[in-house]
Amino acid sequence: MKNIPISAMIGLFFTALYFLMAIFAPLLAPYGMAEVVGDVWEPRSAEHLLGTDNIGRDLLSRMIYGGRTTIFIATAATILSFVTGSVLGFFAAVAGGWVDQLLSRFVDLIMSIPTLIFALVVLSVMPVTVPVLIIVMGLLDATRVYRLARAVAVDIEVMDYVEAARLRGEKIKWIIFREILPNALSPLVAEMGLRFIFMVLFVSTLSFLGLGVQPPEADWGGIVKENKDGIVYGIPAALLPAFAIATLAISVNLVADWVLNRTTSLKGGRG
Amino acid sequence: MSEPLVKVRNLKIGATVYPPGEKPHDIEIVHGVDFDLQPGKVLGLIGESGAGKSTIGLASMAYGRGGVKITGGEVWINGRDVLKSKLRDVRRLRGAEVTYVSQSAAASFNPAKKIMEQVIEAAVEQGKFSKKDAEARARTLFAKLGLPDPDNIGERYPHQVSGGQLQRCMTALALCPEPDLVVFDEPTTALDVTTQIEVLMAIKEAIRDTGVAALYITHDLAVVAQVSDDIMVLRHGNTVEYGSVDQIINNPQEDYTKALVSVRSIHHEEKAPTSEPVLSVRNITARYKGTNFDVLHNVNVDLHPGQTLAVVGESGSGKSTLARVITGLLPPRDGEIEFAGRKLSADLAGRSQEDLRELQMIYQMADVAMNPRQTVGTIIGRPLEFYFGMRGAEKRKRILELLDEIELGESFIDRYPAELSGGQKQRVCIARALAAKPKMIICDEVTSALDPLVADGILKLLLELQKIENVAYLFITHDLATVRAISDNIAVMYQGKVQRYGGKTEVLSPPFDDYTDLLLSSVPEMRLGWLEEVIANRKMESAGN
To answer: By the CB < 8 Å criterion, does A261 face chain B?
Structure first.
């Protein structure tokens, strides 16, 4: 861990900061999440470090709680999408033939519909709760992960060591989890960083459109929605979540870049 | 003696390495090499992989490839120290005074341009010839190198000529600007043995006729003996021995050179076939999916317990396809395989665990035959666990026994493949195959990616293990020296058919059919004048020509 480049250090620091804030939100937030503690759109003051929002709740507290919701949903959806996407992708690559055709064409079908529209349609008929959000986002995003995992696995699948495992008579489970997965991990981990950020943006978009996290629960997209009218009056409350999303995105990407560089070095990432 | 064309003094070359988990640091890969090269002479640089031979070759063009830096010494060409020259002067040198022929012509030609364009490019660019004169010269060179239809071959694209022809085109490319020095970097290594000697002859004649000096880099001493005047033997970036061809071949001084000259010292007496063959291949005809020609035609071979059947042939002869059919990866169109007294299912899925266990395989490239994320212990231990249900201490004990059999120590058990040398990797693959206690092992070109001395060790080990375990080998190779060393029976394959089949002595004794004769006569022999003799006595042109 000595040779971490400075950019990755910065990335790691801010990523850790955001995650810690999310985990310890109740301890850090000065006020309750939905507590009305002041006037509408109060400016910054000693009591309210970031001012108050459109109905007089403390903005800092809402940002911290909102970050918690956003990061939690994005993380859970990313994990879901990676587990389903990569397992199915590996399976398609190893099984080949009509299994591969069926899965790949189905994924093509899903991908041909714009994700946001698809999500909006699904969420408008389903009850919008956090688990439903996670499942919808996770499964829609799994199509992207599937494509990557399949492409990576197809390359690994033709290696002699996989052939050796087949000749030994190994079952598909061993081939996927013991032969392919360890070698596919580095591109997948790097992709995970990117996908996580897309998830943050996705959940924020949904909330902004009113089909994501429901009030009074806070999340970054929701905070933008609630405070967007303030922009006309020069109130910066709506810009804060945008700033938070941007910094989180950059820092996670710095970390992902480092992982990618480290694992695709000249030595073939076997370090 | 006149002033040498090339004078290299105390050449030192370094590189920066990036070991995982450590700080990058500089290492020296060539430690002070000296040599002279007179105009019109050929110096052979020979050594194992990692000896620094290619690096030295490129350094004579003042070039270091992929992070390699020339750290000290002098390289004088035509009375100028090129290492001290300005980049502009060096650029005028490259492609005009010094040219380069690389190992893989197929990878070096631009597939989107015609051969002629590429052959004359350097000569025209450097202002040596006008386009018209350069083309005329190229045609003369094509003719001199024995290329068919020399007037028009330049109008073809690289994929429209064979590998051997392309390698000769690259030689024409190097000779086109009338250089003083050509660096040949393993120019025939990627070619089949029968094609190799024609290219070799063409190169030799071209060098002689144009009076150019050459550095000839190879790992094959027998090849270099045919074309060079002097030989320099390199090892780990040091000169081991430097002398005339005659002296190096007939009177080597250093132990390492002696070992190189006498390599393949293995003697193996042919064994008579025992009663029942362990493997019988009956009338196998096979083709790949989506193609409409048979890669194998009616192949019949037998392999007896504890013996070795060598399947020999050039690339494209179908020998690896035969292995795929036997392992069940490619179900044949016709014919059947009998193994250990029972009929084998054509398809891998239809075979029992017993079938799979008793038929193991060792691959050509040990690097990719082992999962880079598994330790040696896991790699060898998995068959034990899978076939015999071994666990814990019992498994570990057996792994250590196997490591001992392949002459590696206990400390290897926790290493990853990346931490092993080429020979050690291949040994681990052998142990993995043996762990299954097989009746038969298919060895697919297992030594062709290894340096000669290492390959020799692997062959000795295989023979040793055969005696102990009574395992049969189906040995696929293009290398007749290997065949001579280890086989009991030989099948010579040519264009998907078994051309000649029988006991070793029978197959290797005259009268020969034309193809076997071509194949046998093409194996470079370590004596002077062999090349000319062979060319004079040939009955048949090679397929790759």
So the answer is: no
**Angstroms from B129 CA to nearest CA on chain A:** 41
Continuous H helices in B94-188? 105-108, 115-125, 131-144, 163-175
> What whole-number distance in Å separates Cα of residue B116 and Cα of residue B138?
8
d(CA B104, CA B189): 8
Tokens for A177, please give them: 């989890």
Is there a shared CATH topology between the B6-261 domain and the B279-509 domain?
A: yes
Predicted ipTM of the assembly: 0.77
Q: If you search the block for the tokens 């598909």, which residue do you land on?
A: A172
Q: What share of chain B is helix, strand, coil (3-state, %, to 5)?
A: 40, 25, 35
B418 touches chain A (CB under 8 A): yes
Q: Class assignment of domain B279-509?
A: alpha beta
Report the distance separating Cα B17 and Cα B39, nearest Å: 37
Please report residues of A whose CB lies closer than 8 A to that of B356.
167-169
Predicted TM-score (pTM) of the model is 0.80
Helix axes A181-208, A59-95, angle to 10 degrees: 140
- Report domain extents, chain B: 6-261, 279-509
- Pairing assessment for the beta strands B68-77 and B6-17 based on DSSP bridges: antiparallel
- Quick one: residue B45, left, alpha or beta (phi over 0 = left, psi -120 to 50 = alpha)? beta
Calpha distance A16→B255 (Å, rounded): 61
Look up residue B350 and give its two tokens: 């239809």
Give the orientation angle of helix B163-175 with respect to helix B131-144, to 10 degrees: 130
User: Is cis: bond before B511, omega within 30 of 0?
Assistant: yes
What class, spelled out in words, does domain B6-261 have in CATH? alpha beta
CB contact set of B298 (below 8 Å; sequence gap of 6+) = B283, B284, B285, B335, B497
Tokens 């493949």, residue located:
B417
The helix/strand/coil state of B474 is strand
Output the pLDDT for position B545: 45
Q: For chain B, give the percent of residues with pLDDT over 90.
A: 20
Q: Does residue A1 sit at the B interface (CB-CB below 8 Å)?
A: no
Q: By the CB < 8 Å criterion, does B18 face chain A? A: yes
Look-up of token digits 């690097």: B367
How deeply is A250 buried, as exposed, middle or buried, from its count of CB atoms within 10 A (0-12, 13-18, 19+)?
middle
Alpha carbons B56 and B62: distance in angstroms, whole number: 9
Q: Identify which has the larger pLDDT, A235 or A64.
A: A64
CB-neighbour burial class of residue B479 (10 A; exposed 0-12, middle 13-18, buried 19+) = middle
Q: Which CATH class is domain A6-263?
A: mainly alpha
Q: Are B100 and B173 in contact (CB under 8 A)?
A: no
Nearest neighbour of A270 by CB, restricted to B353, B372, B383: B372
Beta strands in B316-431 (DSSP E): 334-339, 342-343, 359-362
Position A15, amino acid: T
Radius of gyration of chain A (CA): 22
B399: part of which helix (H) or strand (E)?
helix B392-405
Question: What per-residue string of b and e applies to B279-316 under the rule 16 or more CB within 10 Å gives b?
Answer: bbbbebbbbeeeeeebbbbebebbbbbbbbbbbbbbeb
pLDDT digits (tens, 9 = 90+) for B445-485: 888 878 878 888 899 899 999 988 889 999 998 888 788 88
The sheet with strand B342-343 has its strands ordered as B296-303, B279-286, B334-339, B342-343
